[in-house]
UniProtKB/TrEMBL annotation, chain A:
Enzyme Commission (EC) number: 2.8.1.10
Gene from which this protein is expressed: thiG
GO cellular component terms, A-Z: cytoplasm
Gene3D superfamilies, A to Z: Aldolase class I
Catalytic activity: [ThiS sulfur-carrier protein]-C-terminal-Gly-aminoethanethioate + 2-iminoacetate + 1-deoxy-D-xylulose 5-phosphate = [ThiS sulfur-carrier protein]-C-terminal Gly-Gly + 2-[(2R,5Z)-2-carboxy-4-methylthiazol-5(2H)-ylidene]ethyl phosphate + 2 H2O + H(+)
Pathway participation: Cofactor biosynthesis; thiamine diphosphate biosynthesis
Listed Pfam families: ThiG
Positions that bind 1-deoxy-D-xylulose 5-phosphate: 156, 182-183, 204-205
Location (main, coarse): cytoplasm
Protein task: Catalyzes the rearrangement of 1-deoxy-D-xylulose 5-phosphate (DXP) to produce the thiazole phosphate moiety of thiamine. Sulfur is provided by the thiocarboxylate moiety of the carrier protein ThiS. In vitro, sulfur can be provided by H(2)S.
Active site: 95
Annotated Thiazole synthase ThiG domain residues: 6-246
Protein name: Thiazole synthase
TrEMBL record, chain B:
InterPro entries linked: Beta-grasp_dom_sf, Mopterin_synth/thiamin_S_b, Thi_S, ThiS/MoaD-like
Organism of origin: Brevibacterium aurantiacum
Pfam families: ThiS
Residue stretches in coiled coil: none
UniProt cross-references to CDD domains, sorted A to Z: Ubl_ThiS
This protein's name: Sulfur carrier protein
Domain of life the protein comes from: Bacteria
Length: 255, 82
């Protein structure tokens, strides 16, 4: 069941975000229930309060940290944020997020690509949050990103996977892991991502904003696992008409 | 030459004694003693990074970096997100 990034083996295929939880203790329970081994955090100005406790909590839980560049609109901002994250959190892994506008939070392809090139050159292991565009995904891979992370739907929308065909195309052409990122609303969305061949799923709001975050975290964990199993179990072909599963031989017929 | 300097820290103006190093600034902010290598003396992990005028100053350089009048300093840490 394991997968690798940068020679690091991860057993869970569920990558969690930490945004949206109403309290740290609810977040901790949800992360525990999710079984995740890799979790994103954002980077913000230190304000002297207990804000660093996410870092402390993840360290205590033994969960690897994936800093993101959420909120950045330009390559320049994203590169600086990534460099600060590397220094603050002692990791060269970064989830590169360069958004185009506040309304869609969708990636800005031009700035994203520029930032990806620069960060790869600077020695980062780049997880690139991208559009569900097979051409852009390929360009990012060619630029040297370690993981391609297409959006299923806009962040926090819970709309699921709007273009499964594109996600499948991205997966089929990628030599690097593909993580479905953003848009997941419920367990079936996560299972579908895995059935489409994704290596893992990244989600936050679907769990942290669920009425029962812990139950949803467990549901997502099971969905990712079952989707992965199904993807590699060789599903039956779809047929236009029925194919009987019971034999007609030896049927009892009235005299 | 006054014995204070004025800097911008996380977007707000601050007046500091001259000289103040980046290490002094962080140490005061987190209320911990920090060793020359930029790590807390108590063995904990800071989870903090510092940039001056848009350039990251690595923690090992904090004790050598003296802040100057007009510097714009950002100090960041991890928060819930993503």
């Amino acid at each position: 069941m394991s997968w690798n990034v940068d020679e690091v083996t991860l057993n869970s295929r569920l990558v969690m975000g930490t945004g949206g939880a109403s309290s740290l203790s609810i977040l901790e329970q949800a992360l525990e229930a999710s079984g995740t081994e890799l979790t994103t955090v954002a980077l913000r100005r230190y304000d002297g309060t207990a804000r660093d406790s996410v870092f402390a909590m993840l360290n205590r839980m033994g969960i690897r940290i994936l800093p993101n560049t959420a909120g950045c609109y330009t390559a320049r901002d994203a590169v600086l944020t990534a460099q600060l994250a590397r220094e603050a959190l002692e990791t060269n892994w970064v989830k590169l997020e360069v958004i185009a506008d506040e309304e869609t939070l969708l990636p800005d392809p031009v700035e994203l690509f520029r930032a990806a090139e620069e960060l790869v050159l600077d020695g980062f292991t780049v997880f690139a949050y991208t559009n569900d565009d097979p051409a852009l995904a390929k360009r990012l891979e060619d630029a040297g990103v370690a993981v391609v992370m297409p959006a299923g739907a806009p962040i926090g929308s819970g709309l699921g996977i709007l273009n499964p065909h594109n996600i499948e195309t991205i997966v089929n052409r990628a030599q690097v892991p593909v993580i479905l990122d953003a848009g997941i609303g419920t367990a079936s969305d996560a299972a579908l991502a895995m059935e489409l061949g994704c290596t893992a799923v990244l989600l936050a709001s679907a769990v942290t904003r669920a009425h029962d975050a812990t139950a949803m975290a467990r549901a997502m964990s099971l969905a990712v696992e079952s989707g992965h199993l199904a993807a590699h179990a060789g599903r039956i072909p779809k047929r236009p008409l029925a194919l009987a599963s019971s034999t007609f031989e030896g049927m009892v017929t009235p005299a | 030459m006054t014995d204070t300097i004025s800097i911008t820290l996380n977007g707000e103006r601050h007046v500091l004694a001259r000289p103040t190093t980046a290490k002094d600034l962080v140490s005061g902010l987190v209320d911990k003693d920090i060793a020359v290598d930029g790590t807390p003396v108590d063995g904990s992990r800071l989870g903090i990074a510092l940039a001056v005028d848009g350039e990251v100053i690595r923690r090992g350089k904090w004790s050598d970096f003296t802040l100057a009048e007009g510097h714009s300093v950002d100090i960041v840490t991890a928060v819930q997100g993503g």
